[in-house]
Amino acid sequence: VIDFMLSNTWNSSQYLAQTNPNIQFVYNATFNEDGQNSTDTQPTIVSINVKERRQYQKMVGLGAGVTDATAIILQALKANRPDAYEEILNLCFNESPEWIAKGGAGMNMIRLPIGASDFGFTEYTYDDTVDGTPDPTLSNFDINKSPKRWQTVQDILKINPGLIVMASPWSPPAWTKGNTRGSLQGGSILQQYEGAFGDYLVKFVKTLKESKGITVKVLSLQNEPLYDGAKYPCSKMLPDQQARIGALTRQKLDAAGFNSVKILAYDHNWDNTEYPIDVFDDAAEDFAGVAWHCYGGDPSGQEPFNEAYPDRWVWFTECTRITQYYEEPWENIKKQFSQIIKGSISYNSQAVILWNLALQIDKEGFTVPSLPQTCRNCLAPIVVYDNSTGPELEGMNRAAIDSQKNRRSLTGPTLNNDNDLFQMFSKRDDAKNLGVLMNAASLSDASAMNQGADNEGSVIPPTRDTNYRTSDYVTLAHLGVAIRPQKDGERWAQRVGVVTSEDDHSGPVVKAQLFRNSLGNGSSRWSVIILQQYDHYGYDRAKAEDITFQLKFRNYVATFVLPPGAFTLQWTAE
């Protein structure tokens, strides 16, 4: 019997809703393997066929990035509303059944920038010199430039001591690139400083562990190594240089006693399939695997590496969506489930890490803080409304945001009086905006937040919660339910084969992914994640169509009907 379902309908009438649908499997029931198109008298039928002998990768976890921006927002919230802060961290990282029942995602991973990224107030590394003077002995190394980040991670570790920490530099120190102006934007490490950069990474790992109690378990050597034209810290690192630095860093990590720290190659988009292969061709023994991002190409770009170097780690380590242009939440859910849960995981990804864990959002959908000329409408699993962090953050990046608002001629969202969960948008022909789902997407019922808050000028009425779990959170919550260990001491889930009658269609209306989790007693918990996107592209809400599903498991068939949306269904069997 299917006894659990996590539901996110396309119109948000159900948002992270947990139910027991009590759907029975029927022995030797008729199964329409090819499905059925709808007619005036027949419903659309889609078949889902479990192929349990097709066993693939074992999953290792899920998480998000803890940037300076995330830490600034969360520490301000901690000072102003500690109950909300504690609830956010527990919903994100507490793996206990109690918090999962409240809609928790149960993340067990974070990704840390080594130094600054594009999300924060300032550019820096942990070994900067005023005039770009070389410092190969790292005498200026100072990890205390990120105090709020370390406090946030320490608080997360109190909730989840088994946290897996990955770290990636956006730029090495400017002096390693020969930049006497001290700029971190662009350039490449000079070969004479490649060893010093390896020392820098090892010192980061060592100092973070010794002074902050934070253990880094995975490194990449350069975030997005082929993107060096950004207006934020970045650096080009070609494959041959990454192979050399990887070999040097591996030797230095081992010599310092950090043999267990793994190194991932690449950490960039799907559209360059040869880069990680080139790195491994030169230094396969020094790298554990590869890391992928979503901003270019498509998930099939992972396959050439899988074929060249099977059985190596494959992690998906960054993706973000946008808050505006009618994307949030449903269009973003479709993209994340299609590209990541169905796409990247089908090409062997064992871990899924999205970008910023939390950002602050205003009533027009702009998110902060980030450096000038960087993303102003990037999403995060948790967005905190700009009336909930207190006066400390008032006006941050406001001039830059206001100028962008004026260029785009945005207007604010209109609230429905009847508390409809699917908010409509106020608009002009050139203005599209974020609709805020205030009831269903707010945090759990564990605490009553936002009591007595000053909400003047805000889209959030005083009685509402001040935080919103976005489509990114929805993606992680569904994946977490499916792959998390079901019992203490058991491993994370294994991906298992599943085919649908839509798989061969050029525009499938259904996508599915299947996982099996051992319960340790000879039985397993089976989880199928289903994306039902028969919404006629969202152009006409009245035409969104239900689909009748037939799920075949061994010689049993379960039949059920789902509207457009994302769903995770579970059952127990041997």
Automatic annotation (TrEMBL):
<keyword id="KW-0732">Signal</keyword>
<dbReference type="GO" id="GO:0004348">
    <property type="term" value="F:glucosylceramidase activity"/>
</dbReference>
<keyword id="KW-0378">Hydrolase</keyword>
<dbReference type="InterPro" id="IPR017853">
    <property type="entry name" value="GH"/>
</dbReference>
<feature type="domain" description="Glycosyl hydrolase family 30 TIM-barrel">
    <location>
        <begin position="61"/>
        <end position="340"/>
    </location>
</feature>
<dbReference type="InterPro" id="IPR001139">
    <property type="entry name" value="Glyco_hydro_30"/>
</dbReference>
<dbReference type="InterPro" id="IPR033453">
    <property type="entry name" value="Glyco_hydro_30_TIM-barrel"/>
</dbReference>
<dbReference type="GO" id="GO:0016020">
    <property type="term" value="C:membrane"/>
</dbReference>
<dbReference type="Pfam" id="PF02055">
    <property type="entry name" value="Glyco_hydro_30"/>
</dbReference>
<keyword id="KW-0326">Glycosidase</keyword>
<protein>
    <submittedName>
        <fullName>Glycoside hydrolase</fullName>
    </submittedName>
</protein>
<comment type="similarity">
    <text>Belongs to the glycosyl hydrolase 30 family.</text>
</comment>
<dbReference type="GO" id="GO:0006680">
    <property type="term" value="P:glucosylceramide catabolic process"/>
</dbReference>
